[in-house]
Amino acid sequence: MPEIRAVSRRLLLGGALATTGALAAGVGASPASAALPQAAVAPPRRPGQKTMIDVPYPAHRTVRVGVIGLGNRGSGMTTGWAAVPGCTVTAVCDIRADRAKRTADGLANAGKPRPAEYGGSADAYQRMLSRDDIDLVYIATPWEFHYPQGKAALLAGKHVIVELPIATELDELWDLVDTSERTRRHLMLAENCSYGRNELAMLKMAHEGLFGDVTNGHGGYLHDLRALLFSDTYYTDSWRRLWHTRSTASFYAMHGLAPIAAAMDINRGDRMATLTATATAPKGLADYRARFVPRGHPSWNETYVNGDLVTCLIETAQGRIIRAEHDVSSPRPYSRINTLAGSRGIFEDYAGVVSSGGGRIYVEPDHSGHAWRDFGSYRKEFDHWLWKKIGDDAENNGGHGGMDYVLQWRTVQLMRAGLVPDIDVYDSAAWCAPVPLSVMSLAAQGRPVQIPDFTRGAWVNLRMGLDSRTTEMPPSPDPFPPHE
Is residue 484 scored above 60 in pLDDT? Predict the structure, then answer.
């Protein structure tokens, strides 16, 4: 490995976690975006409303979690929350009461405290939110419920973690930002892929200057979901398939977009400024239905309008380019793309090289000859401290290769130790903004639209995020006073 590399972000931070400073005076939207119509103007803050940037969690003796939504995702993640040291699931909720009972039974049978059960009605979660023994609400319901349930949890005085996306409309994203600021409670996107091992190693390589000046990145969600979308049992009431009948949009690119945004310091020295969307014709779902789904199935009454591949080209204020893609309707191997490039090299994930974690790399001066090299030694060198510390536990306790557990462990650790979140409400809103913005751009025949600045100008300040410093999980029993 070379001894001399580009100046690293860590060096620029001066090693001080709490220190921030403007990167440059007068840095704003890119010139190309200056004349574009605003997608949404930042609403003024109400009197007394303040930013949540760099606001730590109050220290919690134990993190008490309430879960809303106990389908495939919610039930699995509930087991993960209960496995984290210093965390207990105190209540579970699903509109189908039998799911709440089944989840509570499972925790009790595993020797965990039995959570209270809520269900049987659409407003059951409201009753759960009135409890005073919940510190964190985890939401894993269909997308259309994320915004109202997330806002209700904030208003009930809880911190919130929401599965993708936190909301699907711009006014909803702004409302969640403002509600978080008014209630002084954190809301974050449950972006597990930001805690993936390769993604965190890529982040660390970028911030150590391995790629030189980062200029562009690609990320997305390419996952053949056709069989699951037409399953009568996997997505309750076919909720996810029905979204493809409602709009042409990039519904779920955040899994790939978020790690690239973190590596580019989005909201921490740069911001996403404009978005241009394109979409292919909607062929995949109808073709699959014609070949594999019996006539008489309810799906035959549906018309699919969402393009198979929706691509968003995002330009940042600093002139970087991000390509974010979404495709769940085509036959293809799984990929989140996860590619980052700069003036001194490039990393590409999902290259099929299993021995090196699926990635390949080419950086100068290490490499020459226009030939890809194995990523394995670089991942080992730049492995994030979280994976070094709890990697074995993660692989034994969490899905998706362990990154689910890393997300949960880190969230609980941050709350118990009283630290600043790695992912805040501003990151969450920015990463989810391509959902409504892609609709706007496509409706305007692919014209670019401006991306709102959810930080209201604070993006120019360099600060820590997922590139966190090594910290310990507080011991149990921990020395902190009970949370009020």
Answer: no
